[in-house]
């Protein structure tokens, strides 16, 4: 009997197993219902912030007080031109020169957002000095404070009295470190360590305290707690004769390509130019070309420049006849660069540092400081011509269109003490302002507006 029950259980189990296998076999080709989940995204427009600019301030003289040769004195006040988005107003402020007892405050400007959009703001200043120990013309753009700035200018050799000027236009104190790149590579001098720059104040550090004896220094200004604006004021005296002044702003951030839209050449015999370049992080090779603005064939070209990481290289350029020249640098690793040019080497001469310019792809305001014969130079990138609309920001000026040929450059005159709106219609260009006159030369790059920051797309995980 038990055997019969066992056989029955075995038969029943076999039948159930067969039924399950059959059911699975039938289910395999069947289409199971699926659920598709869309990726959820949220587009968040950053809250517009206050636009803020800081200017380099007055030209400063070092060593005028024989009882305190390290004392700084004001030598020439800066004349500033400022403007903001039409229909808005810029508010003026001051940055106290903590290291210059008799110095005038440097100018600062702010502009509040309007109708939920950040206000574009532009300013630039210039200085003329004619004294026994200091003479020349300088111009610089007033720029937003930054956490990092590259200053490629100046010298630590005898005859130079160069100064790193650091301004904090904000409401929070900043701590700044100055890293110097020289003949032995990257160094962190004691004079450049942990510099406290209180809110609304300006600090000045002599370049000789950072890079004494360095012929081609590069200074990296790094800030914590709050961003700062940095410039490098340079001057030179040759056998007791002043040979010019300059106020150099930060150059474009490290990149594999760098462009200086225009440098000013002179026709004086014996006066050349030199390009200073640095690969901050990696050994690399570079190609340098100098091309007359409006033309396509270089007048100076060198390929295979070997750059050792952290060590600046100075390249002498053939004498450049009077005119404006575009400078292009291409490298296999990120580099920074600028060019030095002078009107002469005797009494009444002047010099300038020409910084590489950042790319501009949004409508941008720029200011033209007072000075001799200012010109705007535009360069285009890519394979297509670029139409740039140029409009005087004040007075309802009529827009003019400047055609920049593909991969080329063009220069146009602009009015001193004026503000313009530059619109490349979503194409990418670079631009700078240059000045050239009798014993006067200067330049500064046009910085792209950040008022048109793109919305942020957030994708929750």
From TrEMBL:
Which domain of life does this protein belong to? Bacteria
InterPro entries attached to this UniProt entry: DUF5719
What ranges does the record list as Polar residues composition bias? 81-91
Which residue ranges are recorded for the region named Disordered?
80-103
This chain belongs to which protein, by name?
DUF5719 family protein
Q: Which organism is it from?
A: Microbacterium dauci
